[in-house]
Structure formats: structure tokens, C-alpha cells
């Protein structure tokens, strides 16, 4: 299996994502430039963090017009696994590959710290190695991570079990003090209806080595590797393995 | 022609910047400013002299780029020159 890390002008977590996939987990991995017309054989895509195209208008607003987004969209619609991290999540929202939108953090401050996250769903290719209810400690770093969806959309998201991670305290309880940005329903990560596209504000690629202060992000990479390892894996059936 | 596009968060969407500005005004003694909503303002210089075409072009740009319909709405004013 091959990881493709999509690089936009202004991406700044692309090397971290590639390092995690290639050096920490020993996977085949390479960069894709935002002007590329095809995915060069990638089996899983990561849209990394950063400030794509500068994010001057809205976060992710211009990146959705990058040429690579046409094959990314086609890949996602075929059921190919796509992970958007931080700015990558914002891009997936602006591109309409995930529902909702991001607002400025409720406190207006850029938040750069470790947070606790409760795993809500494990039938996605990026969380299948986790346990429901498991609490992860992973860093965030963003100014616009205040997830919003209008009430009817939010109801559908919850009914479809599309919320993958929620901000909680260390014991896995949702409370206002543990929500770093004001996200509705404490949503930190969500997936699409097909469950193959996942967006998350926390940075799992920054939490794969003890040297960096924690290894809880490994579960995201272990999940996708496991997804490709076994055809009997339930996550493959969950997404219908059309990829 | 010139088009002015005003993009604001929908009334149902919490505006953290607007709230903070309102709080700041209150601390400066402007108790009669009940609330503040902030937004973005764009001036588009359009290479057309047709009013209808200017309105269509500005709406197209606002729909596709300037505003995110999930959280924002917009208003357009077109004036001739």
C-alpha cells in the first residue's frame, strides 16, 4: 500500500505526515503536488495541516480549486480512504467532501496544546484499531477549529454515527472546559456517510513517537495499515472496499 | 461597474469576533451597543457596463468563492460608473 501526502502551497505538516507513514511505520509513501492531475498510485491520501494558499479568505477555501482535488474527489467517491488533518480537515469541509464548516475558535485564540479525545466510532479505516470509548491524548494547533453544522445537518451526522472523535477530559467526559475551540457537540473528527473520508483537527502524525511526548496518534496509522492488511477486516466491509 | 459584496455569518451562527468586539465596547462604556456582528466587505471592479451582467457575475463569485453557504450569507450592491 502507498500513502500519498498532498502538498499545497502553504502546507506545513506534510513532512511530518510523510515521516510518520514512511519512517515510523515503514510504509511506501510519497508527496503529491496540488497541481498534479493524478494520484500516482496512492492507496490512501493524507491532506496535511498548514495554511493552504495562505488561507487568506477562509481556511481551505482556495485549496478546493487546486487541480489535484478533482482526482481526490473521484478517489473519495470510489470509497478510497482520505484523511484530512487540521487544515486538511478544513479543506475537505470547503470541498464538500465532509459536511459542515469551521469558525474561528470560540476564544479567538490559536490553541496549541495536547487535548484528550474520546474514540466514538471504530468502523472507519482510520479508527478501526481503536476501541470505542478509548481516550487519546494528541496535540492540536489551530485558530479555526470551531466546528459548526446547522441543527438539521448535525442531527443527520449524529444519527449516521459520523462523529469519530470528541474533545473530552482525561476520563472521557465531555465538558465545556475540555472543548478547546467551541466545536458543536465537542466534535474533533468526523467521517462522511460512506465512512472512508475522515477529517480531524488533532495531529496524529505529531504523536507517533515517545520522543515527541506521546504515541496515541499511532492508532490512526495502525488503523489504515490494518485496513489494507486483512481482507477480513470489518472496516473494509464497512466501506465496502471499493478502493 | 462596481459591485460591493457584504458577507456575514448567518444569524443562527455564533460570531466569536463580534461578541468580543461587543464586550470591548461595553468595557469602554458603550452600554447601548447591544450586540455586534462582524463580517467581510469586498469591492469588485467588473469589466462590464451591463448592470444585469454585473449582478450575475458578483453573485457567481460570492456563491463559489467569497462566502461559505453553510455559515455565511451575502448581500450585493451594484452601482454604475
Radius of gyration of chain B: 16 Å
CATH class of chain B, anyone? Alpha Beta
CATH class of chain A: Alpha Beta
State the CATH architecture of chain B.
Answer: 2-Layer Sandwich
The percentage helix of chain B is: 25-40%
Strand arrangement within the widest β-sheet of chain A reads 2-1-3-4-11-10-9-6-7
The proportion of strand residues of chain B reads 25-35%
Oligomeric state of this protein: heterodimer
CATH topology of chain B: Mth169, Chain: A
Output the number of helix runs of chain A.
6
Could you explain how this protein is built, in words?
- The complex is a heterodimer of chains A (243) and B (81).
- Chain A is of the alpha/beta class and 243 residues long.
- Chain A has a single domain (2-238), classed as 3-Layer(aba) Sandwich (Rossmann fold).
- Helix content of chain A is 22%, strand content 24%.
- Chain A has 6 helices and 11 strands.
- Chain A has helices spanning 14-24, 69-77, 87-94, 151-159, 218-229, 234-238, and strands spanning 2-7, 28-33, 44-47, 82-85, 101-103, 111-119, 135-142, 146-148, 163-168, 187-191, 197-200.
- In chain A, the strands form 2 sheets. Chain A has a 9-stranded mixed β-sheet with strand order 2-1-3-4-11-10-9-6-7, sandwiched between helices. In chain A, strands 5-8 form a two-stranded antiparallel ribbon.
- In chain A, α2 links the parallel β3 and β4.
- Chain A is globular and about 45 Å long.
- Residues 235-243 of chain A have low confidence and may be disordered.
- Chain B has 81 residues and is of the alpha+beta class.
- Chain B has one domain: Phosphoribosylformylglycinamidine synthase subunit PurS (Mth169, Chain: A, 2-Layer Sandwich).
- Chain B is built from 2 helices and 3 strands, in the order βαβαβ.
- Chain B has helices at residues 16-27, 51-66; strands spanning 2-9, 39-45, 72-79.
- Chain B has a 3-stranded antiparallel β-sheet, with helices on one face.
- The N and C termini of chain B lie close together (6 Å).
- The mean pLDDT of chain B is 94.
- Classes of the chains: A alpha/beta (243), B alpha+beta (81).
- Chain A binds chain B through residues 57-58, 61, 93-94, 100-101, 103-108, 146, 148-150, 153, 182, and chain B through 9, 12-14, 16-17, 20, 65-66, 68, 70-71.
Amino acid at each position: 500500500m502507498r500513502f500519498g501526502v498532498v502538498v499545497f502551497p502553504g502546507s506545513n505538516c506534510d513532512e511530518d505526515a510523510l515521516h510518520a507513514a514512511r519512517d515510523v511505520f515503514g510504509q511506501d509513501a510519497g508527496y503529491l503536488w496540488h497541481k498534479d492531475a493524478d494520484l500516482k498510485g496512492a492507496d490512501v491520501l493524507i491532506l496535511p495541516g498548514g495554511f493552504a494558499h495562505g488561507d487568506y479568505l477562509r481556511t481551505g477555501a482556495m485549496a478546493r480549486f487546486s487541480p489535484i482535488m478533482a482526482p481526490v474527489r473521484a478517489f473519495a467517491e470510489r470509497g478510497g480512504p482520505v484523511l484530512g488533518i487540521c487544515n486538511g480537515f478544513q479543506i475537505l469541509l470547503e470541498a464538500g467532501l465532509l459536511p459542515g464548516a469551521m469558525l474561528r475558535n470560540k476564544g479567538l485564540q490559536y490553541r496549541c496544546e495536547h487535548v484528550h479525545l474520546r474514540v466514538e466510532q471504530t468502523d472507519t479505516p482510520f479508527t478501526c484499531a481503536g476501541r470505542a470509548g478509548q481516550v487519546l491524548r494528541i496535540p492540536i494547533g489551530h485558530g479555526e477549529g470551531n466546528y459548526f453544522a446547522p441543527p438539521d445537518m448535525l442531527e443527520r451526522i449524529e444519527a449516521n454515527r459520523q462523529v469519530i472523535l470528541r474533545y473530552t477530559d482525561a476520563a472521557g467526559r465531555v465538558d465545556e472546559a475540555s472543548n478547546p475551540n467551541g466545536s458543536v457537540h465537542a466534535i474533533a473528527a468526523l467521517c462522511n456517510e460512506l465512512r472512508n473520508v475522515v477529517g480531524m483537527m488533532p495531529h496524529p502524525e505529531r504523536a507517533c513517537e515517545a520522543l515527541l511526548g506521546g504515541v496515541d496518534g499511532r492508532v490512526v496509522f495502525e488503523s489504515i495499515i490494518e485496513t489494507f492488511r486483512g481482507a477480513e477486516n470489518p472496516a473494509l466491509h464497512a466501506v465496502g472496499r471499493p478502493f | 461597474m462596481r459591485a460591493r459584496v457584504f458577507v456575514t455569518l448567518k444569524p443562527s451562527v455564533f460570531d466569536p469576533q463580534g461578541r468580543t468586539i461587543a464586550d470591548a465596547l461595553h468595557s469602554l462604556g458603550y452600554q447601548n451597543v447591544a450586540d455586534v456582528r462582524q463580517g467581510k466587505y469586498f469591492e469588485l471592479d467588473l469589466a462590464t457596463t451591463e448592470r444585469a451582467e454585473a449582478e450575475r457575475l458578483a453573485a457567481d463569485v460570492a456563491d463559489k468563492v467569497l462566502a461559505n453557504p453553510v455559515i455565511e450569507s451575502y448581500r450585493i450592491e451594484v452601482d454604475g460608473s
